[in-house]
């Protein structure tokens, strides 16, 4: 379970692409609410999947397919917004996504659903009361996810100096938007 959480939390996906961009555009400290929101949303998603929501989605493939399509459509819209993000002082002065946006985003993030469904279906501890088991796998996901998310933000913050040139920052934002779009389209195949 630890290895699975590390791979899912540390590899590129919609959350991590957005975290790298947030780090580059606004730094680590300003990105903390978004990191906490991602982890809270994933925690709740994992607990609910451990308590049976995952079984409901697996039993109703059409519901799962609709959720996937809505998630991919939202990711494509978000990719477009990321690619168009303003640079420099204008970007920092604009409305930045925070805790609640990040937590709610997990409901349409296909990679988050894959992680939560797998944790709930494969890693629920045998012989443990369902709520306790669901809370345990949710907490393990949080404990692994938070540092992984922080690394992505620190990567973005680390390249801020390089992105001081507005042309580079626009190119970076466009690249992050394109990366998110590619990830979204690839999720249609899973």
From TrEMBL:
It is found in: Cell membrane. Keywords: Cell membrane, Membrane, Transmembrane, Transmembrane helix. It comes from the Bacteria. Its main location: membrane. It is a multi-pass membrane protein. The chain crosses the membrane at residues 34-58, 65-83, 131-159, 171-188. InterPro entries: LeuE-type. This is LysE family translocator. It comes from Ideonella azotifigens.
């Amino acid at each position: 379970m630890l290895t699975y959480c590390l791979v899912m939390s540390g590899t590129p996906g919609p959350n991590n692409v957005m975290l790298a961009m947030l780090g580059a555009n606004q730094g680590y400290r300003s990105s903390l609410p978004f990191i906490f929101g991602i982890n809270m949303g994933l925690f709740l998603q994992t607990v609910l999947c451990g308590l049976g929501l995952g079984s409901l989605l697996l039993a109703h493939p059409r519901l799962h397919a609709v959720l996937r399509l809505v998630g991919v459509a939202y990711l494509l819209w978000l990719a477009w917004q990321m690619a168009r993000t303003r640079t420099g002082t204008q970007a920092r002065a604009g409305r930045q996504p925070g805790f609640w946006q990040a937590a709610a985003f997990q409901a349409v993030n296909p990679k988050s659903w894959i992680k939560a469904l797998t944790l709930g279906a494969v890693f629920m501890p045998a012989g443990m009361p369902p709520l306790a088991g669901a809370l345990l796998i949710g907490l393990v996901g949080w404990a692994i996810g938070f540092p992984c998310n922080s690394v992505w933000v620190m990567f973005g913050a680390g390249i801020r100096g390089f992105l001081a040139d507005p042309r580079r920052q626009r190119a970076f934002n466009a690249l992050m938007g394109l990366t998110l779009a590619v990830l979204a389209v690839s999720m249609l195949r899973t």
